[in-house]
Amino acid sequence: MTERRRSRQRLEISREATRLFRERGVAATSGEQIAEGVGLSARTLWRYFRSKESCVEPLLAQSVDAFVATLRRWPAERLLEEHLAEDYRLPADAAPDDAAAVLDIVRMTREEPGLRAVWLVINERAEPVLADVLAGRGGQSADELAVRVQAAALNAALRITTEEAAVAGESDTVEDQLARLSEAVRAATHGLVGNAVA
Protein backbone atom coordinates (compact mmCIF):
# COMPACT_ATOMS: atom_id res chain seq x y z
CA MET A 1 0.00 0.00 0.00
CA THR A 2 1.36 3.41 -0.94
CA GLU A 3 1.93 6.01 1.75
CA ARG A 4 -0.67 8.27 0.14
CA ARG A 5 -3.29 5.53 0.17
CA ARG A 6 -2.40 4.64 3.75
CA SER A 7 -2.85 8.30 4.77
CA ARG A 8 -6.23 8.47 3.03
CA GLN A 9 -7.36 5.29 4.77
CA ARG A 10 -6.24 6.63 8.15
CA LEU A 11 -8.20 9.84 7.49
CA GLU A 12 -11.28 7.82 6.51
CA ILE A 13 -11.00 5.88 9.78
CA SER A 14 -10.61 9.16 11.65
CA ARG A 15 -13.78 10.56 10.11
CA GLU A 16 -15.72 7.40 10.97
CA ALA A 17 -14.43 7.37 14.54
CA THR A 18 -15.45 10.99 14.94
CA ARG A 19 -18.90 10.29 13.51
CA LEU A 20 -19.42 7.39 15.94
CA PHE A 21 -18.05 9.35 18.90
CA ARG A 22 -20.50 12.17 18.06
CA GLU A 23 -23.47 9.80 17.77
CA ARG A 24 -22.76 7.29 20.53
CA GLY A 25 -20.08 8.80 22.71
CA VAL A 26 -16.56 7.51 23.17
CA ALA A 27 -17.37 4.92 25.84
CA ALA A 28 -20.16 3.36 23.75
CA THR A 29 -17.99 3.09 20.62
CA SER A 30 -15.63 0.17 20.08
CA GLY A 31 -12.68 -0.18 17.77
CA GLU A 32 -14.52 -3.00 16.06
CA GLN A 33 -17.45 -0.68 15.27
CA ILE A 34 -15.08 1.91 13.82
CA ALA A 35 -13.39 -0.76 11.67
CA GLU A 36 -16.75 -2.13 10.51
CA GLY A 37 -17.88 1.39 9.56
CA VAL A 38 -15.02 1.70 7.05
CA GLY A 39 -15.06 -1.91 5.87
CA LEU A 40 -11.87 -3.03 7.60
CA SER A 41 -11.07 -5.79 10.03
CA ALA A 42 -10.41 -4.83 13.64
CA ARG A 43 -6.92 -6.29 13.20
CA THR A 44 -6.19 -3.81 10.39
CA LEU A 45 -7.53 -0.94 12.48
CA TRP A 46 -5.19 -1.83 15.34
CA ARG A 47 -2.25 -1.86 12.93
CA TYR A 48 -3.02 1.80 12.16
CA PHE A 49 -3.97 3.00 15.66
CA ARG A 50 -3.01 2.04 19.22
CA SER A 51 -6.44 2.88 20.71
CA LYS A 52 -9.90 3.91 19.58
CA GLU A 53 -9.23 7.44 20.84
CA SER A 54 -6.08 7.70 18.74
CA CYS A 55 -8.25 7.16 15.64
CA VAL A 56 -8.97 10.91 15.70
CA GLU A 57 -5.28 11.81 15.21
CA PRO A 58 -5.42 12.29 11.41
CA LEU A 59 -8.26 14.82 11.59
CA LEU A 60 -6.59 16.77 14.38
CA ALA A 61 -3.24 16.65 12.62
CA GLN A 62 -4.86 17.93 9.43
CA SER A 63 -5.91 21.17 11.14
CA VAL A 64 -2.47 21.67 12.72
CA ASP A 65 -0.80 20.90 9.38
CA ALA A 66 -2.99 23.58 7.78
CA PHE A 67 -1.63 26.12 10.27
CA VAL A 68 1.95 25.07 9.48
CA ALA A 69 1.28 25.28 5.73
CA THR A 70 -0.10 28.78 6.19
CA LEU A 71 3.00 29.71 8.17
CA ARG A 72 5.20 28.42 5.33
CA ARG A 73 3.36 30.73 2.87
CA TRP A 74 3.84 33.77 5.13
CA PRO A 75 5.27 36.67 3.09
CA ALA A 76 8.33 38.36 4.56
CA GLU A 77 6.77 41.83 4.63
CA ARG A 78 3.50 40.89 6.39
CA LEU A 79 2.54 40.59 10.02
CA LEU A 80 1.69 36.96 10.76
CA GLU A 81 -1.68 37.90 12.23
CA GLU A 82 -2.67 39.63 8.97
CA HIS A 83 -1.45 36.73 6.87
CA LEU A 84 -3.44 34.20 8.93
CA ALA A 85 -6.64 36.18 8.59
CA GLU A 86 -6.36 36.08 4.80
CA ASP A 87 -4.60 32.80 4.07
CA TYR A 88 -5.51 30.12 6.63
CA ARG A 89 -7.37 27.21 5.04
CA LEU A 90 -7.71 23.45 5.35
CA PRO A 91 -5.93 21.26 2.79
CA ALA A 92 -7.51 20.62 -0.61
CA ASP A 93 -8.32 17.01 0.31
CA ALA A 94 -10.28 18.02 3.43
CA ALA A 95 -13.93 16.98 3.45
CA PRO A 96 -16.57 19.72 3.90
CA ASP A 97 -17.30 18.47 7.44
CA ASP A 98 -13.68 18.15 8.60
CA ALA A 99 -13.44 21.58 10.27
CA ALA A 100 -16.65 20.96 12.24
CA ALA A 101 -15.45 17.45 13.10
CA VAL A 102 -12.19 18.82 14.51
CA LEU A 103 -14.11 21.26 16.70
CA ASP A 104 -16.38 18.42 17.89
CA ILE A 105 -13.37 16.32 18.82
CA VAL A 106 -11.75 19.22 20.64
CA ARG A 107 -15.03 19.89 22.47
CA MET A 108 -15.10 16.24 23.56
CA THR A 109 -11.57 16.54 24.96
CA ARG A 110 -13.04 18.51 27.85
CA GLU A 111 -14.79 15.35 29.13
CA GLU A 112 -12.77 12.54 27.54
CA PRO A 113 -9.22 12.13 28.92
CA GLY A 114 -8.22 9.74 26.12
CA LEU A 115 -9.14 12.29 23.46
CA ARG A 116 -7.48 15.06 25.48
CA ALA A 117 -4.23 13.09 25.50
CA VAL A 118 -4.38 12.69 21.71
CA TRP A 119 -5.06 16.44 21.24
CA LEU A 120 -2.13 17.41 23.45
CA VAL A 121 0.23 14.98 21.70
CA ILE A 122 -0.73 16.45 18.30
CA ASN A 123 0.07 19.91 19.64
CA GLU A 124 3.34 18.75 21.16
CA ARG A 125 4.43 17.26 17.81
CA ALA A 126 3.66 20.56 16.06
CA GLU A 127 6.04 22.63 18.17
CA PRO A 128 9.37 21.50 16.63
CA VAL A 129 7.85 21.83 13.14
CA LEU A 130 6.84 25.41 13.94
CA ALA A 131 10.34 26.05 15.29
CA ASP A 132 11.88 24.75 12.04
CA VAL A 133 9.69 27.06 9.96
CA LEU A 134 10.45 30.10 12.13
CA ALA A 135 14.16 29.29 12.23
CA GLY A 136 14.34 28.99 8.47
CA ARG A 137 12.70 32.37 7.99
CA GLY A 138 15.08 34.11 10.36
CA GLY A 139 18.26 32.28 9.40
CA GLN A 140 18.54 30.81 12.87
CA SER A 141 18.71 27.35 14.39
CA ALA A 142 15.49 25.67 15.50
CA ASP A 143 17.31 24.88 18.77
CA GLU A 144 17.80 28.52 19.72
CA LEU A 145 15.85 29.52 22.80
CA ALA A 146 14.12 32.51 21.18
CA VAL A 147 12.93 30.38 18.26
CA ARG A 148 11.69 27.60 20.54
CA VAL A 149 9.81 30.06 22.74
CA GLN A 150 8.25 31.72 19.67
CA ALA A 151 7.18 28.29 18.35
CA ALA A 152 5.70 27.37 21.74
CA ALA A 153 3.77 30.64 21.84
CA LEU A 154 2.38 30.12 18.32
CA ASN A 155 1.46 26.55 19.19
CA ALA A 156 -0.36 27.70 22.32
CA ALA A 157 -2.18 30.38 20.32
CA LEU A 158 -3.45 27.74 17.89
CA ARG A 159 -4.44 25.28 20.63
CA ILE A 160 -6.24 27.84 22.79
CA THR A 161 -8.15 29.45 19.94
CA THR A 162 -9.21 26.05 18.62
CA GLU A 163 -10.46 25.12 22.09
CA GLU A 164 -12.36 28.41 22.34
CA ALA A 165 -13.93 27.87 18.92
CA ALA A 166 -14.96 24.36 19.98
CA VAL A 167 -16.69 25.70 23.09
CA ALA A 168 -18.37 28.51 21.13
CA GLY A 169 -19.84 25.94 18.74
CA GLU A 170 -22.22 27.00 15.99
CA SER A 171 -22.46 30.58 17.25
CA ASP A 172 -18.90 31.09 15.99
CA THR A 173 -18.34 31.94 12.34
CA VAL A 174 -15.16 31.18 10.41
CA GLU A 175 -14.46 34.92 10.46
CA ASP A 176 -14.83 34.92 14.27
CA GLN A 177 -12.40 32.01 14.54
CA LEU A 178 -9.81 33.65 12.28
CA ALA A 179 -10.15 36.95 14.15
CA ARG A 180 -9.58 35.13 17.45
CA LEU A 181 -6.59 33.27 16.00
CA SER A 182 -5.11 36.52 14.69
CA GLU A 183 -5.60 38.14 18.10
CA ALA A 184 -3.91 35.20 19.84
CA VAL A 185 -1.03 35.24 17.35
CA ARG A 186 -0.61 38.99 17.90
CA ALA A 187 -0.40 38.37 21.65
CA ALA A 188 2.03 35.48 21.17
CA THR A 189 4.32 37.15 18.64
CA HIS A 190 4.09 40.82 19.62
CA GLY A 191 3.67 41.83 15.97
CA LEU A 192 6.33 39.54 14.51
CA VAL A 193 7.01 40.36 10.86
CA GLY A 194 7.63 37.59 8.34
CA ASN A 195 11.41 37.87 8.08
CA ALA A 196 12.37 38.21 11.72
CA VAL A 197 12.21 36.09 14.83
CA ALA A 198 12.19 38.08 18.05
Give the tally of β-strands: 0
How is the biggest beta sheet arranged?
none
How many H/I helical runs?
Answer: 9
Shape: globular
Q: How many distinct folded domains?
A: 2
Low-pLDDT segments? none
Helix vs. strand class:
mainly alpha
CATH homologous superfamily of the largest domain?
A: Tetracycline Repressor, domain 2
Main CATH class of the largest domain: Mainly Alpha
Radius of gyration over all CA atoms, rounded: 18 Å
| Residue fraction in strands | under 5%
Arithmetic mean pLDDT: 88
Distance between the termini: 44 Å
Based on the coordinates given, report the CATH architecture of the largest domain.
Orthogonal Bundle
What is the fold named in CATH at topology level of the largest domain? Tetracycline Repressor, domain 2
Return the string of H and E elements.
HHHHHHHHH
The residue fraction in helices comes out at: 55-70%
InterPro entries: Homeodomain-like_sf, HTH-type_TetR-like_transc_reg, HTH_TetR, MftR_C
Keywords: DNA-binding, Transcription, Transcription regulation
Protein name: AcrR family transcriptional regulator
DNA-binding region: 30-49
